[in-house]
Structure formats: structure tokens, C-alpha cells
Design a protein that fits this description.
Pfam families: RPC5. InterPro entries: RNA_pol_III_Rpc5. This is DNA-directed RNA polymerase III subunit RPC5, variant 2. By secondary structure, the protein is α+β, with helices and mostly antiparallel strands. The protein contains 13 helices and 12 strands. Among the domains are: about 150 residues, no CATH class; about 90 residues, no CATH class.
Length: about 350
């Protein structure tokens, strides 16, 4: 995709798009962080992170974030309030890693699950003046631990019924297994650093292509692809295309004679004025349907009988075929119907 710039601007005239390659080992080290129930522009760059840690398998991330009220909290002599952001692994569709360097946009397709950060819990607010008095009166609380209990054989027999046989040993309990997995995977400290060069905003503009957010483009009547169209064009090479292999034959409109034959087979008996009305409603050119044009084809498919046009027997019963109900040859049916029509005349 080449984006042309204005001749009077200082920006380069052509923006090159170059596909890059990233090793699988490096892809495993890239994390896609998302905020739950937050705006897209609200990133970690706007947060004051105190502590951070992550699991060794990169599937669980925790941030201790300040709430932004440090000046007010310190004035009243209380601890700085913090809250915990804990991640949850969520399957995420194919995304794109892009960077801008040397007047070129480099894009790398990524297949990576996202770590969705959500507020897990709030830290306890403790007053420093009352901290000593509270600690003397309250009993120390140890860390939470998982406890499993087993019933004795005599107690299990006393329960009777299926409850005794449904007891699960502690080793196969899914809660115990999950707890052991969390304990076995060690935590690793994380040093969160903000790397924002001075020209980051200018280099980020070609990646975002914010046509919809620039009112001067509307005033100058300059149109361009939207943000969604821009991203779809970038992902077009890696997006699977569904090919429709069904054949669509062109529809051939019937002629006036074929339309008269179809109406006479269905109606078998019709007035002339009613036939003309039906033809004008169904023919491709209603103005060409006149009494003269209809009479050119009508005697081929029908005969006039006491003011009614009756379909010919050869049209209703094609020769050299048989009746679909009784198996009688159509030649006999034609002779019988012609005899009845002649008797009416």
C-alpha cells in the first residue's frame, strides 16, 4: 500500500510497506496486554506501576498499580492506595506487530493469545496513627492455605447411599491439582519500563492512519481508506479467502410466444383481454404487448371457442409421449379432447 503525500509537505512522498520475519522463540516472548472494560487508548503508559511479577510460562501477570491519589493520601498521613491487576489468558485472533523506521512500515503477523488485565482486588486501607493499636488488639492471621479432609471408613459407612462411594481422594481433586500447578510455576520479577522516544507520536501516525480523526481532511475534501479498511488491506495477504465455486447461469428472459404458451398451459381457458393483461404484467417490455402482437402467436397455441381461447391439445399433451397418470399414449388423449371440443362447437 502506497500512501501519497502532498507536494508541499515535508513528509516523504511514498510510504513503503515491508513484511518482516520474527523467530518463533521471540514470538513466545511477546505479550499482548489488553485492559478489560477500558478504552483502547487507556494503556499501561498512563498508570503508575509499583510492582510487577509474571509466571515463568508467561500465562499469568500481576501489576500493583497506584490509584493516582498520592498527593491527597500523603497529606492526611495514610498509606498510598493501590490495586492489583491480574491477567487472564484469552484466545485472540491474528494481530499485527508494526513499527516504523527509515521511512518504512514493517508489519509482522502474530499468532499470540492475549493477557486480559482486570482489577482483582483492592489493597486494605490502613491508618498509620491507628496501626499500632489495631495490631495489639487483633490476632495475627497467617497466609491462606488449602485444607482437604478425609472421612474415616466407619464414618463413610455410616453415611450410607452413594455419598460414601463418591468421595474423591485429595490427590485427584481438581482444586488441589490447580493449586499445585500454580505453586510449582515460579514467579519471576518484572521491571516495567516505558520506552517512548521523542518522535514516537509522529512515527505512530502512519501505522494508525487516522483519516477519520483529522478534520482538515474533511475540509479539503480529501478522502482515503478508513482505519478498518487500512487494517484489512494489511492483513489481506494472511487472511484465508473463501472461493465460491458455484456456477451462476445467465437468466434468459422468455419471448412473447414462449410466455403465451406458458400461460395457456396453466390456464387452458382464458379471455383475450385477460390474456393481454397477464402478458403485460410478465413481459420484459409491457408497451410492446398489443392486441396485434398477441394475435400473431396466439393461434399457434390456442383456438377460439365461443369467445374463449382454449389451449390446443398438442400443447397440453405432447405427441410421442404417455400420460403420467394412466400411461395412456398422448395420441389417444389428443383425439379424445379434440372430439369433445368439436362436439361443443
Amino acid at each position: 500500500m502506497d500512501v501519497a503525500a502532498e507536494s508541499g509537505s515535508d513528509e516523504p512522498g511514498v510510504l513503503k510497506e515491508v513484511d518482516c520475519y520474527i523467530s518463533p522463540a521471540m514470538q513466545k516472548q511477546i505479550l499482548l496486554l489488553l485492559y478489560k472494560n477500558r478504552e483502547n487508548y487507556h494503556t499501561l503508559d498512563n498508570e503508575s506501576i509499583k510492582e510487577a511479577r509474571i509466571k515463568a510460562n508467561l500465562d499469568l501477570l500481576e501489576f500493583v498499580v497506584e490509584d493516582g491519589r498520592s498527593s491527597f493520601v500523603e497529606s492526611v498521613g495514610k498509606q498510598i492506595d493501590t490495586y492489583l491487576l491480574r491477567s487472564n489468558t484469552v484466545a485472540f485472533p491474528r494481530t499485527l506487530l508494526g513499527y516504523f523506521v527509515n521511512d518504512e512500515c514493517h508489519f509482522i503477523p502474530l499468532k499470540r493469545d492475549a493477557l486480559v488485565l482486570d482489577t482483582c482486588k483492592e489493597a486494605a486501607k490502613v491508618d498509620k496513627t491507628n496501626q499500632n493499636s489495631d495490631s495489639s488488639t487483633s490476632t495475627p492471621v497467617g497466609p491462606a492455605a488449602f485444607v482437604s479432609a478425609r472421612l474415616r471408613t466407619a464414618d463413610a459407612i455410616a453415611l450410607r447411599g452413594p455419598m460414601a462411594s463418591r468421595r474423591k481422594p485429595a490427590d485427584s481433586d481438581p482444586d488441589v491439582i490447580f493449586l499445585k500447578q500454580q505453586v510449582q510455576a515460579p514467579w519471576c520479577p518484572v521491571h516495567y519500563k516505558r520506552f517512548i522516544p521523542s518522535e514516537a507520536f509522529e512515527r505512530r501516525i502512519p501505522l494508525l492512519y487516522p483519516n477519520d480523526d483529522m478534520p482538515e481532511l474533511t475540509r479539503n475534501r480529501v478522502t482515503g481508506p478508513s482505519q478498518e479498511e487500512y487494517v484489512n488491506n494489511l492483513l489481506a495477504s494472511v487472511t484465508p479467502h473463501v472461493v465460491d465455486r458455484s456456477r451462476t447461469e445467465p437468466v434468459k428472459l422468455p419471448t412473447l410466444g414462449e410466455l403465451i404458451q406458458t400461460i395457456m398451459i396453466k390456464a387452458q381457458l382464458i379471455r383475450f383481454d385477460k390474456l393481454v393483461i397477464c402478458l403485460r404484467e410478465r413481459f420484459k417490455d409491457p408497451h410492446s404487448v398489443t392486441n396485434t402482437s398477441v394475435l400473431q402467436y396466439l393461434p399457434t397455441f390456442a383456438v377460439l371457442l365461443r369467445g374463449w381461447w382454449v389451449a390446443k391439445s398438442e400443447i397440453l399433451y405432447p405427441p410421442n409421449s404417455f400420460s403420467e397418470h394412466s400411461g395412456t399414449p398422448n395420441t389417444l388423449l389428443i383425439r379424445a379432447r379434440d372430439y369433445i371440443v368439436g362436439f361443443i362447437l
